[in-house]
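Troubleshooting log. The previous run stalled partway through. Resubmitting the same two chains, unchanged.
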Amino acid sequence: QQPVQSPQAVILREGEDAVINCSSSKALYSVHWYRQKHGEAPVFLMILLKGGEQKGHDKISASFNEKKQQSSLYLTASQLSYSGTYFCGTENEGGGSQGNLIFGKGTKLSVKP
Amino acid sequence: NAGVMQNPRHLVRRRGQEARLRCSPMKGHSHVYWYRQLPEEGLKFMVYLQKENIIDESGMPKERFSAEFPKEGPSILRIQQVVRGDSAAYFCASSPSGRSYNEQFFGPGTRLTVL
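Second attempt completed without errors. Output:
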């Protein structure tokens, strides 16, 4: 039931783009994306709800494909501050919409100068 | 507007002792979630509480662990008779309502070390 994130780790040069995927074996109601830096609290990026929407702000955007039961996070023109571990948290359909999230194991992103 | 507060930030306990972790949600938030994170792992849901009620404790071990969120005061996660395997970072998150479309705001976490 835990969503699968890919890749597990990625190294970028400043200015490069990256895509992080989050796949579930169950139908999803919502997908939450967070970034966590080492030793710190996870920081919210965005929520996508069932409906196949796409969201974005600045150079970080995400899509939610209901049929494929997956979400993708897009980071464009990466900056050093983007470094961290990215987690997707999912809520399955029929889960009561209570916000009880199941998190993936994370994707570690390192941006080098 | 203060964020989610957790204390202590670091807690060291010997095997068999009790650990009490506190979480004060953001002002106006009455929904609290507790998560456990092992090194290099994702966050694992433990329990979801609303003021004075446990809504979902499906992720919490049946023994030794308990949680409460009283009408007044912080939410508390209590671990009795701690064992080495309890060593982890414990995060709480708060939300204005317990709905999927609401962002969860995370606290800085309590890092529990069991000797």
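Takeaways: Chain A is about 0% helix and 55% strand. Chain A touches chain B at residues 2, 29-30, 32, 34, 40-44, 47, 49, 87, 89, 91, 97-106 (CB under 8 Å).
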